[in-house]
């Protein structure tokens, strides 16, 4: 089996190849640690499990560095500067395992020499949200029957749509497969013009009562661990943003997750939508 591409990326985009001594050679880690915690009602004999929960993940790791004193010092300084910046500013970095990632802080470290000639950092990565994410993108263009087609001057719209026919679809519906044992959060990017935003996923309706002009983009993000101001907003033609959180329809749970398995996305297809689906796993593949 091929060795995974393993990197640590700070919040400011500094990449540390964890298989490379020129960056930060990972010596040991427990990235496949999995634990579901039962909440129970105790009986005379045994328990009844009411639900399972997950605590934040803590990955015990050790890095080893070699080379001259100056080389090691620079490598360690680079890693620790990036890690401490993220902790100080509460900006998450990420560990990437091939196409999957988990958001982390490197918040515990102890640096010392080893008996076999290396300089070692022993520490912990702290993942407040305890799941690895693999993103799936689904791009749905307006129906060819929609008069006028798609406005070509929408900032951020890619008319090439590389996934244009990657998913089977009927006049208004697109069928996808969500490859996760869990329900998935998603981000929907909607391109105007439209009088309102309404779509359904397996018959669950998502509706936001706000129009979009040509050139405007609406973003709906269901993830819990993002600021409220980033949940539902519009990007105007000049790049400014408008919060439209309060325009969600009162009869519609717009933050409901996408179920796993075969999923039908249905709407009028008079405008384009991109879906970024955050498929979750307890450990990377």
Reconstruct the topology from this structure.
Blueprint: E1 6-9, E2 15-17, E3 25-29, E4 37-42, E5 47-53, E6 57-65, H1 69-89, E7 93-97, E8 100-113, E9 119-127, E10 132-140, E11 173-178, E12 185-191, E13 197-201, E14 204-208, E15 217-221, E16 232-235, E17 241-243, E18 261-266, E19 272-281
Antiparallel strand pairs: 1-2, 1-7, 3-6, 4-5, 6-9, 7-8, 8-9, 8-10, 10-19, 11-18, 12-15, 12-19, 13-14, 13-18, 15-16, 16-17
How far is it from the N-terminal to the C-terminal residue, by CA?
12 Å
Output the radius of gyration.
23 Å
Overall mean pLDDT stands at 89
What general outline do the C-alpha atoms trace?
globular
Structural class: mainly beta
Major sheet characteristics:
13 strands, antiparallel
Per DSSP, the total helix count is 1
- SS strand fraction: 35-45%
The tally of strands reads 19
Fraction in helix: under 10%
- Note poorly predicted spans: 147-166
The arrangement of helices and strands along the chain is EEEEEEHEEEEEEEEEEEEE
Q: How would you summarize this macromolecular structure in one to three sentences?
A:
The protein is mainly beta and 285 residues long. Helices cover 7% and strands 43% of the residues. The chain has 1 helix and 19 strands.
Overall description:
By secondary structure, the chain is mostly beta strands. Helices cover 7% and strands 43% of the residues. It contains one helix and 19 strands. The strands form three sheets. Strands 1, 2, 3, 6, 7, 8, 9, 10, 12, 15, 16, 17 and 19 form a 13-stranded antiparallel sheet that branches. A four-stranded antiparallel sheet has the order 11-18-13-14, with no helix packed on it. The chain is globular, with a radius of gyration of 23 Å. The chain starts with 5 loop residues before the first strand and ends with a strand.
């Amino acid at each position: 089996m091929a060795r995974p591409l393993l990197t640590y990326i700070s919040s400011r985009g500094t990449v540390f190849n964890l298989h490379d001594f020129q960056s930060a050679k990972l010596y040991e880690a427990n990235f496949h640690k999995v634990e579901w915690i039962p909440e129970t009602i105790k009986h005379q004999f045994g328990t009844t499990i009411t639900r399972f929960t997950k605590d934040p993940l803590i990955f015990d790791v050790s890095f080893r560095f070699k080379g001259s004193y100056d080389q090691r010092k620079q490598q360690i300084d680079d890693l620790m500067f990036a890690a401490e910046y993220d902790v100080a500013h509460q900006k998450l970095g990420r560990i990437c395992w091939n196409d999957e990632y988990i958001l982390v802080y490197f918040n515990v470290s102890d640096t010392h020499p080893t008996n076999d000639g290396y300089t070692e950092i022993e520490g912990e990565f702290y993942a407040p949200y305890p799941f690895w994410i693999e993103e799936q993108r689904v791009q749905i263009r307006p129906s060819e029957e929609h008069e006028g087609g798609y406005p070509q001057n929408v900032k951020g719209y890619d008319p090439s749509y590389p996934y244009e026919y990657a998913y089977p679809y009927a006049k208004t519906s697109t069928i996808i497969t969500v490859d996760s044992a869990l329900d998935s959060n998603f981000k929907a990017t909607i391109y105007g013009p439209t009088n309102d935003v309404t779509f359904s996923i397996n018959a669950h309706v998502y509706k936001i009562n706000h129009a979009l002009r040509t050139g405007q983009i609406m973003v709906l993000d269901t993830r819990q661990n993002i600021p409220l101001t980033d949940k539902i907003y519009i990007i105007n033609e000049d790049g400014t943003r408008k919060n439209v959180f309060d325009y969600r329809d009162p009869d519609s749970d717009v933050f409901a997750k996408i179920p796993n398995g075969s999923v039908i996305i249905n709407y009028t297809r008079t405008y384009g939508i991109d879906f970024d689906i955050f498929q979750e796993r307890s450990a990377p593949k």
